Amino acid sequence: MATTGVGFRWLDLLEKEFDKACVGLDTSLADLETEEPEAVFSARQKIATLSSCFAQLTHKALTIFQHSAKLEVS
Fold first, then answer.
1. pLDDT digits (tens, 9 = 90+) for 7-42
2. pLDDT of 1 over the 80 cut
3. Could you tell me the Gene Ontology terms of the biological process aspect for this record (predicted)?
4. Cβ distance 10 to 61 under 8 Å?
5. How far apart are alpha carbons 68 and 50 in whole angstroms?
């Protein structure tokens, strides 16, 4: 169970760091929005794509960790 627990903790930490980075990037973009609205819009679209990919990846990793936990219990 130790390996699976590490996986769940790792995933939780990774999600928190990703969220902090996205918020920081969005805050930085807000400062530039008045000067370069088209560039900021494009950057926000790319952040949305990255976030979507990250969400899918973490969902798949969570599924694998849950499956591993069930196998370790068996």
1. 889 989 999 999 999 999 999 999 998 899 999 999
2. no
3. negative regulation of protein localization to cell surface
4. no
5. 27
Q: Count structural domains, the chain.
A: 1
CA dist., res. 32 & res. 61, Å (int):
35
| CA dist list (Å): 53 to 6, 8, 26, 48 | 23, 19, 17, 9
Query: Which residues span the domain enclosing 39?
Result: 1-72
Question: CB neighbours of 14 closer than 8 A, spacing ≥ 6?
Answer: 58
> Distance (Å, rounded) from C-alpha 49 to C-alpha 71?
33
More confident residue, 6 or 12: 12
